[in-house]
Structures are given as structure tokens and as C-alpha cells.
Amino acid sequence: MISIFLFNLKQYGLEIIPSLLLGFLLSGIIHEFVPQNLVNKYFGKKDIWSLLRVSLIGIILPLCCFGSLPVAVGFKKKGMPLGSILAFLATTPATSISAILITYKLLGLKFTIYLCLAVILMGIIIGIIGNLLKVKNGMKNESDICPMCEEVSSHLFHMHHQKSFRKRIISILTYSFIDLPKEIGLELVIGIILAVIVATISPIGILIKKYLSGPYGYLFAIIFGLLMYICATASVPLVAAFLNQGLNIGAGMVLLMAGPITSYGTILVIKKEFGLKVFIIYISLVAILSLIFGYLFTYF
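RE: above sequence
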């Protein structure tokens, strides 16, 4: 079993590492050259176009669920509508450049395109409903919300003003291959190891084929996705392993959508910033829309 585990680990590494390195590099370029004031300018209105822009930017920004929290809090302080904030919180951690590349590598072009379109539509729908809700406009300090927000916020909102080409290259490489791996590296390793375990231990495959190939797969995916947070990039190989062992492909889509969006940090921040009502509506929409899009993918 150990030899099989090491073989599967090697195979996953060969498939994932090139796409992962490319994704990290592209993420660093976006982080360096896309200014924050440009983001603020186009996301501040309660219309469908603002939500569409938020969702499109969200699926490529190099931020995990935790990384998006201080940014969302900053958006609230700048007066951004609730719908845009919730759309940002839904789409940003759901996928990224790295996750898109690895999804294409492991699950194919059709799966990748559908996932991106579903995440964008999810963001727009959540945003529209969010704009209909009434919330208090009180300001709060990020450091009062979660211990890590202040540190992460200062890092994410740092504007790169280096003039020389050399300093910009250093900044891109530093963010791509030092800062970003520090942020999601552990979760990525855990996700890959879990994927290899699923692929290696045959009883897991038997259980999946017996109980999760049909409707129960959706129930497993939504419960597992809401309770266990794994970043978008790390969740792809895990879902691929589940699918290879017989998990319903629609349930795999549900897990890829719901898993990266929810975390205990998200729960605490949304509940404290916008109240219990908004939190319940947000989580319910994530669960319901993930199930709908997952079932539709199986149907189509």
C-alpha cells in the first residue's frame, strides 16, 4: 500500500506542479499590476454590471477564502453595496487561475468551463439577493473581526510603487512563490495527500461506488463542502480522486463550488459584520445554488 501511495503521489505531482507554478506566476502578475483603486471604481453600484464585474474578477483573483475576508471588510468601509461584497466573497475563493488550470488538467475543458460559468452565475444571483437586503452601515475594525485580518489586509492592500523593472520582477516572484504558497501551501498539501489516500485505499473507493454514485453523493458533497474548508486549488485533486472512485460527477461539481467558499472565518466575519440573517441567507444560497448547478451539470 505504501508503494501504491508513493506512486499515486508522484503521478499527482507530475500532473499538478507545472500548472500550479504557472498559476502562481500569473497570480503574482495580477497582484502586482492590477491597482486596488481600479477595483473600487467599477464595483460600487447596485446594478447587474457591477455584479458581473465582481464575479469575473473574483474567479481569477489569487485570494483564498481567508484572504478575501479583509478585502471584503475594506469594501464595506468604502461603502460598497452588500450584494457586491457577497458576490466577491462567493466567487473569489471558489476558483482561481491555479484552480482553473488544474481543473482543466485533471477534469477536462467542459468541466472547467461549466464550473467557471456556474461560479459567475452564483455570484450574480447572490449579489442580486444581497442588494435587496437591508444592513447596518456601522464601521468596524478588521482586527476586531478576526485575529489574522489586520495582518492579511495590510499585505493585500499594499500598493506596489516600485519604478524599476527589476523591483517589479522581484515583487512578482516574491508574491508568487513565497507569499502565496505560505497562504495556501499547507491546505494544498493536505488536499493532495487526501486525494492520494482516496485513490490508494480501495475500501474508500468501494464505499463511494456503493453509496455515493447516486443521489446520496449530493448530500455527501454539500455536507462535506460546508463543514470542511479546502482552498480551490487544493480541492481539485481531491474531487478528481473522488470522481475516479465513482462519485457522482454532479456531486463533484457541488463539492468544488461549496467547499472553497465556506470556512469558519467566513462564518464569523459575515455574522459579525452583517448579522445572523445575512449569514443564514448567504450560506443557504451557496448550498442551494451549488446543488442546483451540480444537478444541472449531471443532467446536461
